[in-house]
């Protein structure tokens, strides 16, 4: 009894002493100590490497953290001072991440050639996206492999379905009023289109049109994006606590979607078994679900053939395909609508897409038809070149215990170091003429000039194979050390071919069926560390075009 009384007395005394000021001071002290512990775990870089941002001790580090909106400026400054002259440099990163070594364009190939056991793509992705928490520690290796093996070979046969979905959901989002202008929030309109089109490929009909399912996928993607911003501001020693708290909405949205997705996956598994056994002559519907099943069976991975794991494997694909495509389309429309009216880009692209679609069999897009949209392709590539949504999308984390030594400059990157290719190369005036101006036809002009003289040179017996290959590299899906929105090398985005077809079909349908008023000035996005937050409040005015008889 005396012990119980003493414990109660101590508890009451402790609670009485916990004033708001003391709690605040305790939290502040805990945060400082946590960041101090973090700093001892981060890799240290050679002093020979130049730095951008504030430099000179803990005070400079704190100032860097307080200037998250300046990171993209520092990366561009570093490129102009060092990168374009063949030198690597160090750029600050967010509080929870190590600083990054930004390699020059000439060294990107060396960085990408490193084996996964030396400089890892998967580990860098896991760190950037906080995969342990956001994706429940389920890696993206298997779904990425599936995309590489199955997307390109099946995409052609899925184009009619995708075109149908594009037309139907754009007409719903943009309306059918031919008499009056309609004001739309551009971000919200695109968010009503992209998830449905993407899920026609991922899960098929009718689930791709189920609004509750789509909302769960968009909600999950929003959760990941928000959590990345939150976790990047917390020291890593607190991540086991904070990470599990902030990702509770992830679990909620996953289970919302899984409730609707589970019977679809179960039916697909049954359809696959019946077809494989010869019981049915009807093959299962081609979709990402089917490809995950097919690859799991080919690799003899029973644990990958459960509805729960298949649903988990869809999550990173859904996240990447939804938000990056919406951001890309959002930037594309802002670039087109805010461009010089005298260029009349919308009419030029409308004419091209209309002419090519009219030549397609039954008005259905084919791979070859979409490939002939040179000007449309150029407009998309140019927007992705100019309006980047990150300072770097090509990272490697040094995972070799002994680190890695740069053979060009001699510096040594220790275990845990982050290497990055600099997207500021896309704004280099030595590579791109007038690089800060949106020129929708920048890349198509080169193609058209080549085709104009190609036939004549062939008739003269000249070998233009090398130039033909160079021209082919100007397509939106072609990556290089000078064009990095899809990353580069063997780990370049495997879904970029679908994205290119999807965006072209969307742009074509919108331009052929709607008039859109130009905007006076392109709204600027907000930068947080190395990533943008688009101008989500932008509104556009659209009107359905009247069909000609």
From TrEMBL:
Gene3D superfamilies: Cytochrome P450. Heme binds at residue 493. The keyword Lipid metabolism does not apply. Pathway: Antibiotic biosynthesis. The chain crosses the membrane at residues 14-37. It comes from the Eukaryota. Its cofactor is heme. One of its GO terms (molecular function) is monooxygenase activity. Keywords: Antibiotic biosynthesis, Heme, Iron, Membrane, Metal-binding, Monooxygenase, Oxidoreductase, Transmembrane, Transmembrane helix. GO terms for biological process: antibiotic biosynthetic process. Pfam families: p450. Belongs to the cytochrome P450 family. This is Cytochrome P450. It comes from Neurospora tetrasperma (strain FGSC 2508 / ATCC MYA-4615 / P0657).
């Amino acid at each position: 009894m005396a012990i119980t009384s003493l414990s109660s007395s101590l508890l009451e005394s402790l609670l009485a002493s916990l004033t708001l000021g003391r709690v605040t001071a305790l939290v502040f002290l805990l945060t400082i100590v946590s960041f101090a512990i973090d700093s001892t775990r981060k890799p240290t870089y050679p002093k020979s490497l130049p730095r951008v941002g504030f430099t000179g001790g803990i005070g400079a580090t704190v100032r860097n953290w307080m200037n998250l909106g300046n990171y993209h400026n520092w990366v561009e400054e570093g490129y102009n001072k060092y990168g374009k002259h063949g030198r690597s440099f160090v750029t600050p990163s967010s509080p929870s991440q190590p600083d990054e070594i930004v390699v020059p364009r000439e060294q990107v190939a060396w960085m990408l050639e490193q084996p996964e056991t030396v400089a890892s793509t998967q580990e860098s992705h896991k760190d950037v996206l906080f995969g342990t928490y956001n994706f429940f520690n389920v890696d993206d290796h298997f779904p990425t492999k599936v995309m590489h093996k199955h997307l390109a070979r099946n995409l052609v046969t899925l184009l009619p379905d995708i075109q149908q979905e594009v037309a139907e959901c754009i007409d719903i989002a943009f309306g059918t009023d031919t008499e009056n202008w309609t004001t739309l929030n551009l971000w919200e309109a695109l968010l009503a289109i992209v998830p449905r089109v993407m899920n026609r490929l991922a899960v098929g009909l009718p689930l791709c049109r189920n609004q509750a399912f789509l909302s769960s996928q968009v909600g999950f993607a929003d959760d990941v994006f928000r959590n990345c911003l939150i976790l990047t501001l917390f020291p890593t020693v607190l991540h086991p606590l904070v990470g599990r708290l902030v990702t509770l909405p992830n679990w909620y949205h996953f289970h919302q979607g899984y409730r609707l997705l589970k019977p679809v996956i179960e039916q697909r598994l049954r359809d696959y078994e019946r077809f494989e056994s010869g019981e049915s002559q009807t093959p299962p519907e081609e979709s990402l679900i089917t490809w995950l099943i097919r690859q799991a069976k080919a690799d003899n991975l029973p644990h990958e053939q459960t509805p729960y794991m298949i649903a988990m494997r869809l999550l990173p694909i859904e996240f990447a395909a939804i938000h990056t495509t919406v951001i890309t389309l959002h930037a594309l429309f802002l670039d087109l609508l805010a461009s010089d009216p005298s260029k009349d880009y919308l009419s030029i692209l409308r004419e091209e897409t209309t002419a090519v679609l009219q030549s397609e069999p039954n008005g259905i897009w084919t791979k070859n038809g979409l490939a002939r949209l040179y000007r449309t392709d150029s407009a998309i590539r140019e927007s992705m070149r100019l309006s980047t949504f990150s300072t770097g999308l090509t990272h490697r984390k040094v995972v070799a215990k002994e680190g890695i030594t740069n053979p060009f400059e001699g510096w040594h990157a220790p275990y845990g170091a982050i290497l990055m290719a600099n997207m500021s190369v896309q704004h280099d005036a030595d590579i791109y003429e007038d690089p800060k101006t949106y020129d929708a036809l920048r890349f198509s002009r080169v193609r058209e000039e080549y085709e104009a003289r190609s036939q004549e040179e062939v008739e003269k017996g000249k070998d233009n194979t090398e130039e033909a290959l160079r021209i082919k590299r100007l397509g939106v899906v072609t990556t290089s050390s000078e064009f990095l929105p899809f990353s580069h090398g063997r780990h370049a985005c495997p879904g970029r071919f679908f994205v290119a077809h999807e965006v072209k079909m969307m742009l074509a349908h919108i331009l052929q069926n709607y008039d859109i008023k130009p905007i006076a000035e392109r709204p600027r996005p907000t930068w947080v560390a190395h990533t943008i937050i688009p101008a989500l409040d932008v509104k556009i005015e659209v009107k359905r075009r009247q069909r000609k008889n």
